[in-house]
Every structure is written in C-alpha cells, then in structure tokens.
Amino acid sequence: MSNNHTFGIMQFLNIEYIKKAVNDHTLNRTVRLRHKAKLKILSKDNYRCVVCKTTEFLTIDHIKRVRDIKKERNSNAINSRWKLPLEYYQVLCVSCHQEKNRIEGQ
Ligand SMILES: [Zn+2]
Which of 20, 27, 37, 89 could potentially form a cystine with 41 if both were Cys, beta carbons 3.0 to 4.6 Å apart? Predict the structure, then answer.
C-alpha cells in the first residue's frame, strides 16, 4: 500500500467510494471503521481543503505524527493512525499537502 507520507505521487480520496464503503458489509470491519473515520474528518472540515478551500483532490493530513503524539502522551496505547481524536486530523488538497510536507522536510 502507498503511504501518503512518503514522497512520490500522493493519492487523493475518492469520497463517493468512501461513502459507499462505510455501508459495504462485504468489507471487513476494520476497513469500514477506517472509512468512517475519514468521513468524520471530511465532515469536520466541510469537505474542503482547510488551506485553499478547494473541494477537489482531497487528502487527510495527520497534523502531528503518531510518534510525536505518543511521546507527548507518553503512551504506546495509540496503535492506529485512524483512532485519534478528530483535532489531530485536517483535510488538505494534494497540492497543499505536498507543500506542507515540503516545508516540514518530509
Ligand atoms: Zn489546498
């Protein structure tokens, strides 16, 4: 699987697919819960990039890296990238996301 945090072509979200997938019981539960988490985040940010407000080519950005959150909370209990409180995520379009990664030197 591709990882959004590596360099290369960043994949954007297929929102129509995600909306269907949350109710697709042929998918396993973990996958459905991950899609559900993505929809919650999209909804929190009104399905727009928080920087440039576009509604196209959206991605979800982990505002902080999971390893930094673990350090902050001094906890190894956080195992999933998709089980953090909503404020740890934001919606970014592909170009704003790439720009953020570039600035952060990722
Ligand atoms: Zn943007």
Answer: 89
